[in-house]
Amino acid sequence: MRTIAGVASEIDPRTLMVVGPSGSGKTATVMHALRGLGPDVPVLRVQRIWSRRPHARFLGDTERSDLTVAAPGADGRPTTGFFESVTQNLGGTVPRVVFVDDAGVLTEERLSWLQHLVDEAFALDCRVVVAAEELAPGTLPDELDVLRLGPLDAPALRHFLTDALGLAIASDVVERITWWSAGNPRLALELAQDLSVAQLRGGALWHGPDTAGSAAQRTYRHALETVDEPEADLLASFVLRQTGSSLGEEPWDGAAGLGDDPSLNRLAELGLTELRGETWFLRHPLVAVLCAERRRAERPAAPTSERRGEAMLRGLHMQELNPVLRAGPLSVEGPKNRALAFTVSVLTGQTWGIPRPGLAGAVDCREWADHAWWRGSAGVDGPVREAARRLAAAALAVEAEGVVHDPDQLRADLDTVGETPGQHWLGLHLQTRMRLMLGDVSGARALVAGHVDDDVQGAAEHVARSLSAAMVAAVEGQFHDVRRHLDAVRRLRPGCDGWLVLRGLTALADAAIDGRVPDAGVPDVLGTWSARAAAEFAADVGAAHLLLGRAREAVSLLAVSAEQCRWPYQCPVMVRADLVDAAVSAGDVQSLPAAAGDTAVDECGVLSADLRAAAARGAALLADGDGALAAFDEAVRASTPPASIRQHVRTLVAYGRFRAARGDAGVAVAAFDRGRTLAQLAGLAGWTRGIDTAQTASGGAVASNRWEGLRREERTMVRLALKGATNSKIAESVFVSERTVVNRLRQVYQRLGIRDRRDLIRLAEECPPRWAAAEV
């Protein structure tokens, strides 16, 4: 647009040709650029220039005027009368810029006519901009500049389509639309408008257009005129082969090669194909669709139900998938699809892919265990395959029964399978989840980081990779990373926003970053969502409430999580520590459920830094007598790095409450301030609000005792401060220096467990001392 706008101000009177296929946005781009010149630059837009009666109007005018200009070749003077007709019909104004819109394909004859028009414009110090679909081959005049509008990329088309349709579109659908439309916005909009909402959001499979619309016919009408029958047959066979294969496999490969055919060189000359390395590729796929329509080629055979089921599973086309799988995991055909159904069910938190105990052969996963971890297991030896089968059975037991029969064996099998090549991200997501539930946060982090650059096929694997990273980040307290990974999931599959795992993680990240209070409780939809998914949702939302200082709300949610699921991805020890933390903070330790204390650290196994920190915090919160102080000192040491920021801040807040309850207000303030500083450095403003709430509550609990411990002169200063006196006024009243007043008030704040005069006023309102109303 800067190039177009610069035409009007150039000293050198050059002509600009804006070239691009129909629908590529030439008119919109030129008009937007020329409007930016302002009302002082008269811009004339001319349309139907090749007709007997073209018409024109100045930008900003509502009335259109016909121009009596002879069409090219109609007489010996091709452009005679153009500007004369302009001045006669449009009020005598001479334009500064003439925009010749929709000039079509500029043949040599048309280009010559425009050259005469440019010569006439030069005499009037007028510039000319022409929008054309294509230029005739040959040498162009020196004073002619050509600006070719390239195709839009997927992010730009996504923005354009979202604005045009008012609907969030799945990112892989945008990529497919971008390929089929060759980045042409008008063609992309025509394709998108033919899709259902489910297809646009990724809930239903879309392999590509069966027919080309009117916009495609206009855009490629000239190209089709130059394609002979053998070339049209080649293009038609390609698009039929491509749409047929896309139904049976994910990811769909829009860049599939064309093979080798003598006609490809001729198609390259027409701009329809290009050679990349040693492979030919199609540049304008809709031309192939038009050729297929013209040749009336037969459509490929419909894919089998097994192939279609695999495509729906890999593509996470949930709107089509749910009705198919509600009959149970055995309703899908083939061992690969059984494995896909199970791993996708774990990913989404739904129950349709989880075989239930008691069904004949339902729990025997040996036939599909290999497919749960590897794309192909041909090179996997016997012991590793046995470990993979045990690992699949353990994952199945956690989902179906909520039990881990042998944690030590599970850890060993995770180590064995995790080191093998050729894994896919649905299996890696399962391994990440199981490592986290065993408390091996560092192992889960290493697993995600070690495979983040691996090949990812299909929407399900993309989502699995992002959710794995989000869960690890949530356990470690990296809530900005949680939000970033969840945003990637939503861009790819907007329809997954209702999944419990996304709702829970979103609530936790929003609470930490923005201080947003969760607005949802535990859903009563266990028939659709697994008990494990509902319990993890409750644990995430409960942790969000605890983070904000809402202990009573956190207790009920965390108790539900502990009762419903013994093995959440956060690790039961971590959930138990948060539950005890919330109960102690709410003064409701007696209501702790039995399930909160029945998972020992040894059972979880790997003593990672986060697990040790959570276990030490839980033990300290429940300790009695003199042993509590030593337990808390140990908990604070255990929560320092390499433990995550989440465990350290939670321990500091619990420690601050404990020391405040003992009357050690100064130590409590230091603990709260350290936690607050860490949260601020991490950009977690919401967490600082929860720390403030905990500090205020702790200060009020011991304030009544601390008020009585103030000396007479300190009480006098406090009374004056509460009445609004400045430090200088207080100094005059008690006959000391202002510096002394500042130092003594600071000592008072430290003993009361507060920070400044605002906290002093708030504390006096919430827990007023008996002597505060006495006269000075």
What would your notes on this structure say?
A hairpin with a 6-residue loop joins strand 3 (about 55-60) and strand 4 (about 65). The chain is built from 36 helices and 11 strands. The strands form 3 sheets. A 7-stranded mixed β-sheet has the order 4-3-2-5-7-1-9, sandwiched between helices. The relative contact order is 0.05. The protein has about 775 residues and is mainly alpha-helical. About 55% of the residues lie in helices and about 5% in strands.
Describe this protein with a few key phrases.
single chain; 36 helices; 776 residues; mainly alpha; seven-stranded mixed beta sheet; Sig_transdc_resp-reg_C-effctor; Tscrpt_reg_LuxR_C; flat; P-loop_NTPase
Q: Secondary-structure blueprint of this entry?
A:
Layout: H1 2-6, E1 15-19, H2 26-35, E2 43-47, E3 55-58, E4 65-66, H3 82-89, E5 97-100, E6 105-106, H4 108-123, E7 127-132, E8 134-135, E9 144-148, H5 154-165, H6 171-181, H7 185-193, H8 197-200, H9 214-219, H10 221-225, H11 229-246, H12 263-269, E10 273-276, E11 279-282, H13 285-295, H14 305-315, H15 318-325, H16 335-348, H17 382-401, H18 407-418, H19 425-437, H20 441-451, H21 458-476, H22 479-492, H23 500-514, H24 531-547, H25 551-564, H26 572-586, H27 601-604, H28 609-622, H29 627-639, H30 645-661, H31 665-681, H32 685-708, H33 712-722, H34 727-734, H35 738-752, H36 757-766
Helix pairs in contact: 5-6, 5-7, 6-7, 11-13, 14-15, 14-16, 16-19, 17-18, 19-20, 19-21, 20-21, 21-22, 21-23, 22-23, 23-24, 23-32, 24-25, 24-26, 25-26, 26-28, 28-29, 28-30, 29-30, 30-31, 30-32, 31-32, 34-35
